[in-house]
Structure formats: C-alpha cells, structure tokens
Amino acid sequence: MINVFKTKLVLTLFFALLFGFASCDKTPKPEGMPDLHSAKITIVQEGSPLKDAAVTLLNNDLSQAKWVVGGRTNANGVCILKTQGKYNGALAGKYKVIVTKSEKTESETAKQPVPQDSKAAEAYYAKISSEEKFYDYVDLKYKSPDTSDLEIEITAGKNEQTFDVGKAIKKEFVPFGK
Questions:
Q1: Residue 6 belongs to what H/E stretch?
Q2: Chain mean pLDDT for the chain
Q3: Domains (ranges, CATH) in the chain?
Q4: At the N or C end, where does the chain have fewer CB atoms within 10 A?
C-alpha cells in the first residue's frame, strides 16, 4: 500500500515538474533577434469575432523578413502575435497584415476503413481526393500583401489593433499539388 502511494506521489511530482518547465519557455532568443514587443490583433468579420483565422505580418523592412510574425485567432477573434512561432511579441516596425481562413470538407469515403488490397487502397485515396473540397472564408484581397489594405505599426510597449475583414465569403479553391 505504501509503495503504491509513493509511486503515485513520485509520478505526480514528476509530471508537475515536467509540465511546469514545459509551460515556462526559457528558450533563449536566436542570435541577432531584435527586441520583441507585446502585440495583439483582433480580427472581426461582419462585426463578429473570426475564429481560426491565420494572421501573418509582413515587415515593410525587408532586412527583417527572416523574423516571421503571426499566429491564429481564438474564439474571440484574438491573435497573440509570436515571432518564429514561439517567441511572444513582434519586432518594432511597419507591417502589412495578411488574414486567411481556409477549410476543407471531410470526405465520406475517408470515414471508411482503408482497404488492405493495394489497388483498392489506391482507388480509395483517389476517391477521397476527388470528394474533398477546399474553401476560403475571408475576402481574397486580404490573402496577399499586394492587395491587403491592413497595416499595423508595432512600437515599444503594448500594441493592440482590431481589423474588420468585411463580408464572409465561401469560395472554393484548389490547393497546390492537388
């Protein structure tokens, strides 16, 4: 009985320490990375928060282009910007803001088990590919830096801005390689 208790205690402490350290990202910034500043963007569409939209900032200073800034919106349309996908904040500068939201429909065939026969499996995957459809839900002008009119300037301190991406759309597209 005591061994079971000790085992549970040791495992509990182990996982508490593991998750505690995992949540405290003490990873040093890469060499040459400029200071980052807290930045939060809210995306709305037709007045409502836009969930699961990808937000990418393109720095007007091309010498800083190697530092990728972006994130994904939560249920409230809020995107906490990160640099290189893991460092909180963004470099100071002026940016074009790119917003996309794309989804694919689920294939009915994909819900079935994969056939064991190789020819049948090949036909199975081909059918899935033909059934899947991909859709954009944000006006395509916000998908390109050449057409997006969304801009933000990140400065020292706290940065917050809300962008409205207009009317909702549902436009089918064919992804690369399909």
A1: helix 2-23
A2: 86
A3: 33-101+137-173 (2.60.40.10)
A4: N
